[in-house]
Description:
Layout: H1 3-8, E1 10-17, H2 23-33, H3 53-65, E2 71-76, E3 79-84, H4 93-100, E4 105-111, H5 118-130, E5 134-139, H6 148-159, E6 162-165, E7 167-170, E8 178-181, E9 186-189, E10 202-204, H7 211-217, H8 221-234, H9 240-244, E11 248-253, H10 262-272, E12 279-280, E13 285-286, E14 294-302, E15 311-319, E16 322-323, E17 327-330, E18 335-338, E19 343-346, E20 349-352, E21 355-356, E22 361-366, E23 375-377, E24 394-400, H11 406-418, E25 423-427, E26 432-437, H12 441-454, E27 458-463, E28 467-472, H13 476-484, E29 490-492, E30 498-502, H14 505-514, E31 519-521, E32 532-533
Helix pairs in contact: 3-12, 4-5, 11-12
Amino acid sequence: MDYIKEIERRRTFAIISHPDAGKTTLTEKLLLFGGAIQVAGAVKSNKIRRDTASDFMEIERQRGISVATSVMGFDYRGFQVNLLDTPGHKDFAEDTYRTLTAVDSVVLVIDCVKGVEPQTERLMEVCRMRKTPVIIFVNKMDREGKNPFDLINELEAKLNITVRPLSWPVSMGSSFKGVYNLYDRGLYLFTPGGNTLPDDDAVAIDDLDDPLVDKLLGGHASQLRDDTALIEGVCAPFEKRQYLDGNVAPVFFGSAINNFGVRELLDTFIAIAPAPGARPADLRAVAPDEKSFSGFVFKIHANLDPRHRDRIAFLRICSGKFERNKLYHHVRLGKALRFRSPATFMAQEKILIDEAYPGDVIGLYDTGNFKIGDTLTDGEKLMFHGIPSFSPEIFKEVINTDPMKSKQLEKGIQQLTDEGVAQLFTQDQGNRKIIGTVGELQFEVIQYRLLHEYGASCRFSPLDYFKACWITSEDRQKIKEFSKYRTARLALDKDANLVFFAESKWNLQRSIDENPKISFHFTSEFKTAANTVTA
Ligand code: G4P
């Protein structure tokens, strides 16, 4: 197959949801349809049920045995579908944000009983920021949920995006009859049960006035006619371009556990979801069909076996063909690297590969060369941007409790923060270390891993900061003046960018108001200026 065709048949995406909406179940059913697994129950949930480091580590260990769960690739109707896993716990939301930089589109799962939940709103914000195309799957239609029209309104209001139903449910809960596909005009009748593949059982219905509809749906037929007429009257016709631009999100209804609506979702997904597209880098945009190779690291998975310190760096290929054993240029280090055993992932298995294409995610064994956001190229000195660090919300100072192990602690903190577990800020020429996270659980995980992987121990002393933001100004003098009386509340991030710790919302707003020549940024992606607040 030629190079262009290889790119065009790739669909790289992530499923995102609030915990419990059905992400794991849907993932598993997609793999079932893709023939990547034969029975349900093969996909391990990444849900942390007890909010403790040991629970998290246990899940990571089980999953670490097959890091393959980070990327699940399968072939479906001639398409290479790459499904990237995202963590289920809110404290690891940043990991999810980074994964979103490596995909071309997203499927968002909503629980029809609960509607839009807080984590969904935040995830969707990131998609909107990046203009990522989103398909919404309203799950659990076998339960008594919210009225579908109310749900549609709620989706639009809370997710801030125009939605367009492409299927519509016929009743729900105990009387759920199925869905009518407004896109291909097929009626899919619901039968519960779902660990095996159902037949493709759509009944083609071109005209909803056909008496067959009454025969199949009984008393629910007229409701479907009314609902459909209302949707067609109110919603603009679906336009693929609008979806690809991130302006309109098509909506499907189904029940993942019952295998219902999943094939439809997958068939529409491969038909409309984007193939790998151009990616912005600092020097220029990189098109996937360029011959020279480029890619970036968006995730680093520690090998949780303490005897082997190796890690796996996950690299998203942006352009060119990747080849095993070829020398590539590590742009940040200015170093040539060769990869002898790059891996790709087919569902549960990790497979050694000789080549990979744009859109693919490959695992590279790493002995400490990579950190999140690193770019590999054929030689060109470009860096992809778009691996943002978000402003953390919880801050603690690291206190070494075993002075004999200072070096181990230093190395551990550096490596764990390179992995993106948390953000590191330093003061006093690096002597004072402050860790910033979005959740409490990360501190426990850091402490646990420092002890088990590096033999270092520390405790954390809480700091009462509200937010950290990156500050810049075209006028160096302004930064100097700002810094003069605030040295205790300024630090450097790992790339030596200046960071300001605001003690309260009020204090932050005042600092912004009083310093019009200084820009305050809430993600590290400030070169793109999308998240800048200047008074
Ligand atoms: P998550 O990864 O988004 O956190 O959700 P997950 O798939 O683990 O699903 C959360 C719960 O919802 C699970 O039940 C799952 O069986 C159930 N579920 C998923 N899809 C559907 C659906 O279409 N209908 C109904 N009624 N339930 C669904 P659980 O009791 O938490 O776990 P389990 O013991 O069944 O594994």
